[in-house]
Each structure stands twice: as structure tokens, then as C-alpha cells.
Amino acid sequence: MTSVDQPDDLGGEGWPYDATAEYYSTDMGSSMPFDDVGWYRELCRQRGGRVLELGCGSGRILLELLASGIDVTGIDRSMAMLRQLRLAADQRQLRPRVVQMDMRALCLVQQFDVILAPYSLITGFCDTREAISMLVQLRKLLTTNGCLVIDAFVPRPTELYTDFHLDYRRPHGDNILQREKRIDRFDDGCHRIFRRYTLLDSSSQVANRFTTAETIRPYSAGEIDQLAKAAELSVSSWHYDYGSKDCESSAQFATALLHSTQADANQ
Known about the structure:
By secondary structure, the protein is α/β, with parallel strands linked by helices. The protein has helices at residues 16-20, 36-47, 62-67, 79-91, 128-140, 221-230, 261-266, and strands at residues 50-54, 71-76, 97-100, 112-117, 142-153, 165-172, 175-185, 191-200, 206-216, 233-240, 253-260. 24% of the residues lie in helices and 33% in strands.
């Protein structure tokens, strides 16, 4: 294992998912407590047609959809994550269709029947104007009766950490991956999340250590509804913890199904 020689401070400004790609399946991929993959798969089967997954990463969702016979395309900003996806696909003898692309500047012409924005991807758009611009781009990529799926964690009061606190220690192959977290909150409602990763070898020696930084904006259901309206989209239904809860108050995740209001006008 090659050690990443980065200062153990508050992280650089690089894209955090480039740094964590090798560890994603142990890290974020193991942190989802619900069967979101199964929920997305069933939705795509019911809707039919072509599917686009935004931020497909290492393929946690995309490869399961593909293995189920769903016609899915994935995009992701991180080439390092896409390399992990390719490795996982080769092991399963799958041939995914993926493209490196920043969703802030989509270069797609094909339309899709379902577009997925999973695992709170929307929170990466801290500027609401950018979020609306992104939603407008996605609306134009929907077929007439197409569905856009926006997933977001339900905002809760956040405990702010002035120092790093332990998130987890998990097996990672023959090693142990440890993650610590610090959170700052800004006056505009955004959160700056610092994550410090330490890989310990079988002798409990540090094999790798680095810190990432990411700024997000938690969005409530009402705020997502307002963003959608500004982009000429409407929310047709909300789903909580991927169908396992009936209401937002006790849920961790809220998922909105949106469709174009322009499609309504043309019917």
C-alpha cells in the first residue's frame, strides 16, 4: 500500500471522492442503513426505458441495476471512482456504460425515462442557483413522461465538532479503516465536513492517512419542492427511507419523484 503523504490538517481542496475511491465500498458504501439499491431497482423496472445515474461512483447502485437487465448509463466526476467501478464490473463480467462528466455541465443529448440523483447528491449544490440550473438541465434530458428521482437526507439539528470525533473502525481487506469527522456550520446554512481517514495494517501500524473536506447544503423537503418549481418540475410523490417509513418525522432519507410541468402542459 502506498501511503498518501498529506498534512494531517483540515484537508485540501481536491475532490474528496478521488482520495477515497479505493475505500468507498468500506466507507460511504457501507454506511447506508437501508436497501436503497433494491428500491431504485424496483422503480426502474416499473418505469421501464433508459436510466441515467448521476454520481455513479464505484458502481454500488449502477452495477446492480445493470445485472438486473436495466438499460442504465452512469456519469461521475471522479475518474478514480470510475476505475473502481470498472474493476468491480470486470469481476462480475458486466460491461457498464459510464462517462466521466461533471453534472454541473452535462454534455448529453440522449433522453432518459428515469434519472437518479441518489444518496443526497443534491446537497453538493450549495448555491441554490446552481441547483436550479442543474435541475433545468436534467428536465431537458427527461422523456415526455420521464421521472427525476432526488434523494436527500432529512435535515436534523447537527452537533458541531470543534475537534475530530470517531465515526467508525471497519475491516478493509486485511486492514482496518478508521474515520473521524469534524463539522463546521456556516451562517448561510451550509456545513463544512472534514473527514480524517486512517488505514491500519495487520500490526496496527498506520499504512495511510489523509483528510478530505466537503461543503454541503442540507435541503428540506420544502426547499427541494421550491427548487423543483423554479426549474419547471413538480414533485409527484415523496418516499421515506426507501419505502420503509410512512412519514418524514421519523425518517433519515426523503426521496422525491419529479416530472416536468412542461410535459403536463403538453398533454
